[in-house]
């Protein structure tokens, strides 16, 4: 009989709505990175230098996230990107994952290389910079927390800042332990712990990125439940060829074929089905085909 589309009410992605938060966080982190790197080199602290390396990764990742939110909102002028450029935000999150893993490997290698050495470390600057970093990260976490619940791109930035906050705590702990014990080994141990923490966070975020790029069913959504709700729409006899995936954070997409009862009003069935997907399952864009009976093409498709 025909096909219909269910569309959202605005083109702004979840990440785009929180762009100003990313911008402010980027400015604070970039400024603190310079301070931490300089003090780390002067004090000879691997914990500070490793955390500064992670901060550098943050600067790059946050910059990529900002660029992605801009690209995602840009209209397609080529006619080739029929879904727009929203996935730029997902690619930025993937880039963040790679940076986090690279930093964790670097810190691990440096920490292992320092075991057994007797580096002299200035604990005073470590403690001051650690406390300052914790304050900067605390403000950044407050800025990004709400956006992290909606956008995978912002979530990547949020995870970066969480790792930074843990790094700042580690720097404070390392400075205190070195001060009390007089042994620089604590600086190396804490640096290694920071690297492991960053790696664990990166793997968790990476799994989410791969789920989106792999067009998996959105987290928290069950295909069986979506099928049952569509089948329960008055006038629907059967549901097949249902596909549900995530375009970018907060933007779920679906396609399906609905076989309707004899004499059913196809347009009403279509509207009701779109309402069910939008209201019950948060699918703002749905392409639905309404049929009197399954076509041969439906049976021939093997995926």
UniProtKB/TrEMBL annotation:
Taxonomic source organism: Nocardioides bigeumensis
What subcellular compartments does it reside in?
Answer: Membrane
Q: Per its UniProt record, what PANTHER family does this chain match?
A: CATION EFFLUX PROTEIN/ ZINC TRANSPORTER, RE54080P-RELATED
Using the record's annotation, list all stretches that form the Cation efflux protein cytoplasmic domain.
220-292
Q: Which UniProt keywords apply?
A: Ion transport, Membrane, Transmembrane, Transmembrane helix, Transport
Keyword Ion transport listed: yes
Question: Which NCBIfam families would you find in this protein's record?
Answer: CDF
Name of the protein described by the UniProt record: Cation diffusion facilitator family transporter
Q: Where are the transmembrane segments?
A: 26-49, 85-109, 121-144, 156-179, 185-204
> Can you give the residue ranges of the Cation efflux protein transmembrane domain?
23-213
């Amino acid at each position: 009989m025909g096909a219909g589309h269910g569309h959202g009410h605005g083109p702004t992605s979840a990440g785009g709505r929180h762009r100003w938060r990313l911008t402010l966080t980027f400015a604070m982190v970039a400024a603190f990175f310079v301070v931490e790197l300089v003090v780390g080199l002067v004090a000879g602290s691997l914990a500070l230098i490793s955390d500064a390396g992670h901060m550098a990764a943050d600067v790059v990742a946050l910059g990529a996230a900002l660029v992605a939110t801009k690209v995602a909102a840009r209209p397609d002028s080529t006619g080739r990107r029929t879904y727009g450029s929203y996935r730029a935000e997902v690619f930025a999150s993937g880039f963040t994952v790679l940076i986090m893993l690279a930093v964790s490997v670097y810190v691990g290698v440096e920490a292992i290389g320092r075991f057994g050495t007797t580096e002299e470390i200035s604990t005073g600057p470590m403690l001051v910079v650690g406390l300052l970093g914790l304050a900067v990260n605390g403000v950044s976490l407050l800025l990004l927390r709400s956006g992290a619940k909606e956008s995978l791109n912002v979530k990547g930035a949020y995870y970066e800042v969480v790792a930074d906050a843990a790094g700042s705590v580690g720097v404070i702990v390392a400075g205190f332990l070195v001060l009390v014990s007089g042994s620089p080994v604590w600086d190396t141990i804490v640096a290694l712990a920071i690297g492991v923490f960053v790696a664990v966070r990166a793997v968790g975020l990476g799994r989410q990125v791969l789920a989106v790029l792999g067009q998996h069913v959105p987290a928290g959504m069950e295909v069986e439940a979506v099928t049952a709700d569509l089948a329960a729409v008055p006038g629907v006899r059967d549901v097949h060829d249902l596909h549900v995936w995530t375009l970018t954070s907060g933007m779920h997409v679906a396609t399906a074929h609905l076989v309707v009862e004899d004499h059913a009003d196809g347009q009403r069935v279509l509207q009701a089905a779109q309402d069910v997907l939008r209201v019950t399952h948060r699918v703002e864009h749905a392409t639905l085909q309404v049929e009197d009976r399954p076509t041969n093409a439906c049976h021939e498709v093997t995926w």
